[in-house]
Amino acid sequence: MNYDIIKLLNLEQFNVKFQSIETTKINNILNCYITLEKIDLVCPVCGGMHFFIHSYRLKKIKHSISTNNPCFIIYKARRYKCKYCSKVFYEPNPFSLKFDKNSSFTVYIVLNALKSHTKTFTDVAKEFNLSKTTVLNIFDQYVAYQRNHLPKVLCFDEVYTSRKSYQKYAFVMADFFKSKIVEVFSSRHKYRLVQSFSAISQNERDNVSHIVIDMWDTYLDLSKIYFKQALIAVDSFHVIQHLNNAMTNIRLKIMRKFDHRTKSLLANDIYYYMLKRFHYYFIKNYEEIYDKPLYIHKMQTSWTKDEIRKYLLSIDEDLSYAYYLKEKYREFNLTAEYETCDEEFDYLIERFVNSHLEEFRQFGKLLSRWKPYIKNSFIRINGRRLSNGPMEGINSRIKTIMKTANGYKNFNRLRNRIVYSINKDISIKLTK
């Protein structure tokens, strides 16, 4: 027996004994002809143990291995006939499930490859010498996610799925502590979420103690209606995002006063040049900005980040005022405690609402409206502050799945693909 062939073709994992095994290669297709050793059987109808070989039937099974050529198992299956009841039956097929034309090894390596969120169905098909249709069929046949029980802390967010569809954003629920997807709904529209939440039992919904959302009114309204026992927190990342947008608009308004309408940045006004070149100083955490001297071409000199910031804030009083007020809120966001933050929070809201800058007045109104839910974001559970942080990593991987595949037409397949790739412990269906 050629054990090298058995090892090369990954046949040892089937845990069977071979009577004969031969390989041929024709037109770059590898065929492996296999006959198994006889084993003790009983008639599936009468339980008798006396039967004879009625005939043989060749079964062609696709078997993907790590070669550049397609490979098939040509299995010579015995058909037995019972001497008592005349029942004709096959010997057990160890290579594949009933009616399946792909070996179980092929199914395994395809499903294992699809756990990577960077691989498309086409990539996996090329890797294992299969058609894209075969890979799709294997995935649809063996992967079907069933939602688990709702966790104590839920994160709500949406992810962009298609510009061609009426439902451009899918709704994603995630487990805050496990960073796993709980469920993906086809739309974030209110009427769709009403249908989806209504399908979950009230007892299960009442088990949720906290929900983290962004500033989307639909999420707030439905959380109050369907998760009555849960405290609702607004993710601080989205609050800071609104603040940075306001700061950016202030910078742009000031910068445009010095615009000489030239396409060359170096030829423009020095104030315009500096505000455009170092725009990130106004929205990025100062501690994260590059700390070595930078060469400034227009001035033909090198400055440290402290010197650059000092110059930027000297350009306009409104810019300096806006920057330090923005930094005041950022510091508050990083250090505030749920039990003691009310006084400082009210002070900051008043500063923004009464600001002479329209952009900050609008931000102040936003803080005032969402204050109870922003405050809830300072709650810590088991040492962790409530946030939509787990959703950011999940959404990044979902976007990769969408981008590499150039979109999905079948939402149910997309849902299963997302959950299967991100929740690594998803079980597969063992039978059809």
What topology does this entry show?
Elements: H1 3-8, E1 18-26, E2 29-36, E3 51-62, E4 71-82, E5 88-90, H2 104-113, H3 121-127, H4 132-142, E6 153-160, E7 169-175, E8 180-185, H5 190-198, H6 202-206, E9 210-213, H7 217-226, E10 231-234, H8 236-255, H9 270-277, E11 294-296, E12 301-303, H10 305-314, H11 317-335, H12 342-353, H13 358-376, E13 380-381, E14 384-385, H14 389-405, H15 411-422
Parallel strand pairs: 2-4, 6-9, 9-10
Antiparallel strand pairs: 1-2, 3-4, 4-5, 6-7, 7-8, 11-12, 13-14
Broad shape: elongated
Averaging pLDDT over every residue, what do you get? 91
Q: Which range best describes the helical content: under 10%, 10-25%, 25-40%, 40-55%, 55-70% or over 70%?
A: 40-55%
- Which sheet architecture does the biggest sheet show? 5 strands, mixed
Question: Stretches where pLDDT falls below 50 for ≥5 residues?
Answer: none
Q: State Rg.
A: 32 Å
Structural class of the secondary elements?
alpha+beta
Proportion of strand residues: 15-25%
Q: Distance between the terminal alpha carbons, to the nearest Å?
A: 34 Å
Number of helices: 15
Number of strands: 14
Helix/strand order: HEEEEEHHHEEEHHEHEHHEEHHHHEEHH
What is the quaternary state of this protein?
single chain
